[in-house]
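testing teh design pipeline on a random one, pls ignore if ur not involved
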């Protein structure tokens, strides 16, 4: 009986080994898909609206004093909040990227909001 259990255990372990190897890879792949599928921040978003986010910086109001300020040259562009474990930065010069301020959303490189911070 004991020998039979041992055989069964060995057989189970052998059959499960490939799943043990593949499972972390599948989980990582799901994370990458999640990051790529992040929705765009909209101007109707409660926080985006409060910070007067515009996907097209040229449509921002007088609050945008520096007319060269855009998400692309903001220190918070393509950065992830430490609280957002699903967030992944994207390739440099991407038209959209995560923003440290807006968890779970991506912003336009041509956008702007009142939290704009000069790089450097
Ligand atoms: S803080 Fe504002 S300006 Fe800076 S990247 Fe985020 S949305 Fe764009």
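output:
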């Amino acid at each position: 009986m004991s020998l039979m259990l041992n055989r069964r255990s060995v057989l189970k372990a052998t059959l499960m080994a490939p799943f043990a190897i593949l499972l972390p890879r599948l989980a990582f792949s799901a994370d990458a898909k999640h990051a790529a599928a992040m929705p765009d921040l909209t101007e109707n978003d409660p926080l985006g609206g409060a910070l007067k986010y515009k996907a097209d910086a040229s449509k921002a109001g007088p609050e945008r004093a520096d007319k060269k300020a855009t998400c692309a040259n903001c220190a918070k562009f393509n950065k992830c909040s430490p609280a957002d474990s699903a967030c992944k930065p994207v390739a440099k010069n991407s038209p959209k990227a995560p923003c440290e301020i807006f968890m779970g959303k991506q912003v336009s490189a041509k956008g702007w909001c009142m939290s704009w911070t000069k790089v450097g």
